[in-house]
Amino acid sequence: MKNYQVQDIKNLLSTAKTALIAVPQLTIDSVAAALALALALQKSNIETKVYCPTKPDANYSKLSGLELLIHTYNQNDLIITLDYPLTQIEKVNYNQDNGKLNLVVQTKEGAPKVAENQIAITSQSATSDINFILGDETQLGAAANMVNNGAWVQISPNDNIKAWAKTNVVDQDAPFCEIFSFLLPMIGLNLNVDSAKNLLIGLRVATQSFSVNVSPETFEAGAVCLKATQSTEITPPVQVAQPTQPVQTFNPNTVPTA
Fold first, then answer.
1. Residues 211-230 as b or e (16 or more Cβ within 10 Å = b)
2. How many CB atoms lie within 10 A of CB 92?
3. How far is 257 from 91, CA to CA, in rounded Å?
4. How many angstroms separate the CA atoms of 11 and 144, rounded?
5. Domain spanning 7-75+127-234: CATH 2.30.30.100
6. Which residues of 109-128 are buried (b: 16+ CB within 10 A; e: fewer)?
């Protein structure tokens, strides 16, 4: 079992309401791990986005949480958020008044007025409460400077610790999905079925079906995720006593394919 130093991450998560996960390099291992983390954060009521500058192709279609991916990051974008029921909004328009832009939100007849405290204006440069990056920020290209603001957690399989990182987890020669199989429970996040399936897919691809670049911990990570994927399928016996079930073994060939 891996033993990472995670107290700083847990401290950041304890008050976080929003999170950003940056994936500089598109691989099934990195995207599967990022989406597994994102889904676990969402289950903990932390609003999460996953930024990857390269769009995935059909090879990524079996991963859960692809709707959380964004592929553009413009620090000059302005975001206006209304904490108001969408069912009470008739339409949204805009117009110009002496060179000034007006956004017009028309509510339905009889709907309550939009209060000022229901309006939030932010720019995309505003950082999330906690930010994760899987790898080296230089591969983000023009968006690399995003790491200059906010609290960042660096996750890396290389011993290349960055000065901008608030804290880091470095595990040399381990794929991202192996790292996150152990990391998620350590930081208090539930390894749910969708997260576990993503990690299994990433593990299989990164290790060529557990045949290369493996260690005992790699197989342990696979077993942990496989158990999590089957947790909802196991039901306790009802009234009738059942014989002891045999211990389930981990067969790498049963891992979902990417």
1. eeebeebbbbbbbbbbebbe
2. 11
3. 44
4. 25
5. no
6. eeeeeeeeeeeeeeeebebb
Handedness of CA 79, 127, 43, 11 (dihedral sign): negative
Which is higher by pLDDT, 232 or 60? 60
| pLDDT per position as a tens digit, 12-52 | 999 999 999 999 999 999 999 999 999 999 999 999 999 99
β-pairing verdict for 152-156 and 167-170: parallel
Structure tokens at 37: 């983390």
Q: Mean pLDDT in the chain?
A: 87
Domain residue ranges in the chain: 7-75+127-234, 78-123
pLDDT for position 234: 35
Q: Is 150 helix (H, G, I), strand (E, B) or coil?
A: coil
> To 5 degrees, how large is the angle CA 68–CA 71–CA 73?
110
- Show the tokens assigned to 221: 């990570």
- Collect all residues with Cβ–Cβ distance below 8 Å to 204 and sequence separation of at least 6: 210, 252, 255, 256, 257, 258
Q: What is the pLDDT of residues 130-184, one digit of tens each?
A: 999 999 999 998 889 899 889 999 999 888 889 999 999 999 989 999 999 999 9
